[in-house]
Amino acid sequence: MHDAVTLEPVKSHHRTTYVLDSNVLIHDPNSLLNFEEHQVVIPITVLEELDKLKNGKKTIAADCRQAIRLIDSIVGAATPEEIENGVPITRGDKTPPAGSLSIQMNSAPSNVSMLPTDLNDNRIINDICHLQRLHPENEFVLVTKDINMRLKARGCGLMAEDYHNDHQISDVSLLPRGFLELDGSLWDRIDNVETVQHNGRTLHTIPKLEVFGNPGINEFILDAQDFVGRVVSNYVDENGDGKLVLEHMDREKLLNRTAWGLQPLDIHQALALHLLLDPDIQLVNLNGPAGSGKTILALAAAIEMTVAEQQYRRIIATRSTKGLDEDIGYLPGTEAEKMEPWLGAITDNLEALHNDDESTRSSVDYILDRVPLQFKSLNYIRGRSFQQSLIIIDECQNLTPHQMKTIITRAGYGSKVICLGNLAQIDTPYLNPASSGLTYLTQRFRDFEFGGAIQLEGVPRSALAAFAEANL
Q1: Which one, 94, 323, 382, 425, has least CB within 10 Å?
Q2: In sequence order, what are the residues at sequence separation of 6 or more whose Cβ sits closer than 8 angstroms to the Cβ of residue 292?
Q3: For residues 86 and 75, what is the distance between their CA atoms, to the nearest angstrom?
Q4: What is the pLDDT of residues 183-230, one digit of tens each?
């Protein structure tokens, strides 16, 4: 057995060696495929951490198992020497293998350790420092989602960085809002327009101006003269000119449309309600500050489409919190009873929809009795397929991109998914606004023909809530 990993130096061209922490493999089980031609090293301490976390029904356990299976498929029947020097990483396509995977089987000797060895993070940092001493010609970079671990590594003279592969945008202020507001009139900016009537809709084909940027399908363009247009198509014509096709929307109808008695308070809520009630839209993504109306709009639209219009057979509500990722236990209570405290926002908004009734409690009980509303733990969504269902996922900002994919792919035939979140309230330690599953979803589904996203603004909950959002 060797004392340490023997990495073969590449003298013909520079190749960086990335050492992955366990939280990176949990965050994205396929992460080791995303380092192109570089060498990837997984310390034995990381494998031990994955092994401890792999059992159970938690989401984190499933992610650990997936990461372990991928490592096993790459390593395959390689000999210990091949694993030590690096096994070529194949990606299942016809391209030749790029990069390699090594497993660091031995820890740094205690007499050369820079940090106390009582913590796994310290052991990993010590091992990288030892590798750097043995191979000064190589560049070793620790990749971890743990900010404190990055700080300790840099203090030991190592390079350390976050895992950026799933960052869809560098600055969340650049995240699409789902609408563009123009000063003045849109038509004052347009020299020519082609207007046609199609299936009862008025469609305008206009030049794509620089001020529009690159709007996605189902985004909206608003002007100061009350024009509202929905982007139906964004293309380049035979002359190489950019064109937009806008569906003309009636602003007053949007603002006066109701769902289960709820009427939007501003044009942004009206646009959100339009997407929620559109039977052709299969995914709606609502982002906005606390109190901007995300949950009550989604719930009102869900009840309207399930009870009044009977488009869906049931409503499934879930949310992401650390507590929901744990085992919900056995006794006492059913899954719905145990989930209800976590989904208090749903029942709170049910009461708000019926505040003007003679008996709010009776109305809420009536709705819960008539509406097939099911509260589900994220643990029990994995592996299932929901047909003809309306799925509401609250607190989406706390989901990783991998978890978001796992949940969205549960939607079966005739189902609709509504994702709600606030990027300013991320509670998961290894996520930030740029790496949140909500950001990932917003960017990746921009051109999905049957999806739409709106960033709600303002805090109409109360004057107190508005002041607190702005000043606390």
Answers
A1: 94
A2: 456, 457, 458, 459, 460, 461
A3: 9
A4: 999 999 998 999 999 889 999 999 999 889 889 999 999 999 999 999
